[in-house]
Amino acid sequence: MPHNFLARLTGSFSQGAADNPTVAMVEAAYRHHGLDVRYINCEVHPDKLGDAVRGARAMGWLGFNCSMPHKVKVIDHLDGLGQSAAVMGAVNCAVMRDGKLIGENTDGKGFLQSLRQVVDPEGKSIVMFGAGGAARAIAVELAFAGAKKILIVNRDDKRGRDLADLLNSKTKITASNTSLSGSNAAGSGGVRVPDGTDIVVNATSIGLYPDVDAQVPLSFDSLKPNMVIADVIVNPPRTNLIRDAQARGCKVIDGLGMVVNQGVIGIKYWTGVDVDAGVMRKTVEALFAA
Ligand code: NDP
């Protein structure tokens, strides 16, 4: 029987690549499923992004992830965009399809896959803290999944308003925004979640290591046990928000689910294989425990 020594290639282009644990998680899945695919974590300077993408094309890569600071600029080097990446104007996963490199965004899709294990967002009312890259991706996917309305709460009012405008103009969700410094906010004991809210999302960096004692400025007595509370923070996964929401009887979703499901979706795009999310979750949990 002839050998095949030619592995298929995937990877990631970013700056600060040495801190990105995705390679460990993805390669654990490749090994578990016996896939002869590699994931190469590459440090790429912004001036060299075009060369990196041309190199990936020349070497026949199946695709690659893109992290900071390339998520917007990479679009200039691709052949097309998926629906939500086009609305967001940001790509974190490029996929070779029929000889064309197509930009997708798995940030929000990973979140949604994680959320759907607990609740279907269709017809639901959302309160989301944050209006940065992660928030944008999550809000667009929630809108495409049929969520009814979303209140965006952000520190920088303009950024929050821009996201609400984007959602109202490009999707069917009804979006509004409020500033963290507004009347319904921190000074008065935190933002009160309106009655009838189904899902609350923290898509800010609040609670991220090393500032692990920070708390989302939320009035916890406005949370009801039937609400689902989701946090995007990966390190540590058990944030103050998760802990306090659980204490109030809410269902909770941590940031690991989002990161793991992004990996699952990326691998499916590149190889067509549905990999075991549990293997990947175990790998990242071990990394953060260490
Ligand atoms: P951005 O820098 O694009 O946005 C940061 C957001 O957090 C903004 O809305 C910002 O508000 C807000 N923010 C930051 N610090 C504070 C604070 N002290 N008080 C109030 N608001 C604050 O970052 P990203 O959107 O890319 O990432 C946000 C978080 O999501 C990060 O912690 C990141 O690690 C995590 N993440 C997790 C993923 C996962 O798979 N689990 C995937 C992607 C991101 P303002 O606009 O006012 O500055």
Q: N-to-C SSE series?
A: EHEHEEHEEHEHEHEEEHEHH
What gap, in angstroms, lies between the N and C termini? 42 Å
The total beta strand count reads 12
Low-confidence stretches: none
Shape: globular
Approximate strand percentage = 15-25%
- Share of helix, binned: 25-40%
- The overall pLDDT average reads 94
Radius of gyration: 19 Å
Count of alpha and pi helical runs? 9
The neighbouring-strand order within the major sheet is 2-1-3-5-6-4
Query: Which structural class is indicated by helix and strand composition?
Result: alpha/beta
Bound molecules: NADPH dihydro-nicotinamide-adenine-dinucleotide phosphate
How is the biggest beta sheet arranged? 6 strands, mixed
What does this structure look like?
It is a single chain. By secondary structure, the protein is an alpha/beta fold. It has 9 helices and 12 strands. The strands form 2 sheets. The protein has a 6-stranded mixed β-sheet with strand order 2-1-3-5-6-4, with helices on both faces. A 6-stranded parallel β-sheet has the order 9-8-7-10-11-12, with helices on both faces. Helix 5 links the parallel strand 7 and strand 8. Helix 1 crosses helix 9, helix 4 crosses helix 8 and helix 8 crosses helix 9. The model has no long low-confidence stretch (mean pLDDT 94). NADPH dihydro-nicotinamide-adenine-dinucleotide phosphate binds next to helix 4, helix 5 and helix 8.
